[in-house]
Design goal:
homodimer; about 325 residues; alpha/beta; TIM Barrel; 16 helices; 9 strands; about 10% strand
Chain lengths: ~325, ~325
């Protein structure tokens, strides 16, 4: 995988799966049930190490991704973060009233020690040939949770950005520095590369995309390099549509994560020449399995053949996926 | 507006607003409360005519769009359609068991008489300078409601398409013919142009986009022309991202509806030379109003200046929009 991230075309392509340490695995659910809540789960290295390694025991994957969450960053900033079972994350929203103090990005690394401990332990236990990925949410994506206090539709966040541009800027600035510190600490702990999940890139008019996604991501990558991080950075602006070209060209990321609906030929045309691409099988096909999965897997490999390619889904794997379909996918990819 | 649809650049651009006859208007809510349910509302010409004309009385708009719903087509096919107050539409889903008989597209026009009566009456009452728009849902979009039995996320529909391609094809074939009959009858009743709302174009891998959106839309446009319809057709593949180019080039539509996140320069580059474009102000700005709205309105006009342009939103207007912001928008556009 690191060879691909360095610009080399490798056949068959290396493979990992977004959210590979997740609820579709019975052994994950068994560990999950031991933690009293989701944040506690993320912050208990014994548990995080175990679930990070689980998919590697089952499948011939080329990378592990540390089990954690994009909301550890606001939590590390001192914003209260909790999860409502069966619903999702909750934070104190920033929609009403003046902007409170957002916390000190310089303290995030101190607060997130268990994440780095888990990374160091995974790296020590993992086969040296397996790449270990550290990650953070993109500044805009994390900001949408902080602003709304939850996930869901992003209309209120766009209104916040239009009506309170200075506050929006202040939030993004804190998140850029916090994410940079957090990502740099993950590399120091032993991660080999990084992914920025800009999961809510869709629906923004170009000027807002520029202010809320392009510039903060550019600042984040620049800051990481200034902090001495030389590891490759995969940017994944899910749903950015026509705007992935600007993301690929202007943010400084090493590689581009491509979502399901974006054709490989389009990503290749829009990205700088030779940029490694990652993607983009429809996760729904991993639920279906069978000939539909096999056929689309072959097509994805063919479509990305002109670029250095890391095989992945175009979105995270879903809880209802049968693990045997993942096994079939990986076996098919490795020519088994 | 018809001049723009014929390829002429008009300054200032003509304007209408998706869902302009809608809940943001108090006079709409007053009429809506008279109908026992939403389908009854659609099928009562007195009410449909009244709400179609309401926004034209308030605002200096260049087009009216007949008040109706994309689900009158499955209803006209004999599928049961009802609305749950505060939630949305319901149909008997097609997910489980063998595909039932889907109804006879030849009978749709007979079943939807009240829609055509409303169109004829609106056309008679409307200033001849105002364009009257007829519409239908795109075949894939309507199919997603029929398959799931409701709106919401489209994952199940993609799985249906992967696992039951023959059934998917059969549904789309019926919907193409039914939509063609319905759209042709709207033109015969007095509509001046047509819009195809492919509201759920996002998230499809390219081969499925081709099967479920491109080919059915191409068949629909071809069928409309065979039925003698010469009126312009606006195709609006909302969320198609990188794939709007293929939609614009391959379906035969006259004009392209552009969603909020797709820049005008991208649509222009991807569409056939000189194709009229419609869009694409963020509806959230109409809630905000003020300087943010004014500034983005100017930007949208500037960005589309190189193409024949119909000003519109990039998505439907929302119920919480203050009508005075719509007035301010239209006044600003008309140079008032």
């Amino acid at each position: 995988m690191l060879r691909v991230l360095a610009g080399e075309r490798v056949d068959p392509p290396p493979v990992w799966i977004m959210r590979q340490a997740g609820r579709y695995l019975p052994e994950y659910r068994a560990v999950r049930s031991k933690a009293k809540d989701f944040m506690h789960f993320c912050y208990t290295p014994d548990l995080a190490v175990e679930v990070t390694l689980q998919p590697l025991r089952r499948f011939d994957l080329d990378a592990a991704i540390i089990f954690s969450d994009i909301l550890v960053v606001p939590d590390g900033l001192g914003r209260k973060v909790w999860f409502v079972e069966g619903e999702g994350p909750r934070l104190e929203p920033l929609l009403d009233g003046p902007l409170p103090a957002l916390g000190d990005p310089g303290k995030v690394v101190g607060a997130l020690g268990p994440v780095y401990e888990a990374i160091a332990r995974v790296r020590a236990e993992l086969d040296p040939k397996i790449t270990l990925i550290g990650f953070a949410g993109g500044p805009w994506t994390v900001a949408t949770y902080m602003i709304q206090g939850e996930g869901g539709d992003k209309d209120r966040c766009r209104r916040f950005a239009y009506q309170r541009p200075a506050d929006m800027h202040a939030i993004l600035e804190v998140l850029v520095e916090a994410a940079a510190q957090h990502l740099a600490a993950q590399i120091q702990a032993g991660a080999n590369c990084l992914q920025i999940f800009e999961s809510w890139s869709e629906g923004l008019p170009e000027p807002l995309f520029e202010q809320a996604i392009l510039k903060p991501t550019q600042a984040l990558v620049t800051r990481l390099r200034a902090l001495g991080v030389t590891a490759p950075i995969i940017g994944f602006p899910r749903g950015a549509g026509a705007l992935i070209g600007r993301y690929a060209r202007e943010t400084g990321v090493t590689a581009l994560g491509v979502d399901t609906q974006t054709p490989a030929h389009f990503a290749r045309r829009e990205a700088p020449a030779g940029m490694p691409l990652q993607g983009n099988l429809d996760p729904q096909l991993l639920i279906c399995g069978g000939e539909a999965l096999a056929q689309e897997t072959r097509r994805v490999v063919e479509d990305f053949r002109g670029s250095p390619h890391i095989f992945n889904l175009g979105h995270g794997i879903t809880p209802q996926t049968p693990p045997e379909n993942v096994a079939a996918l990986v076996t098919a990819l490795k020519g088994g």
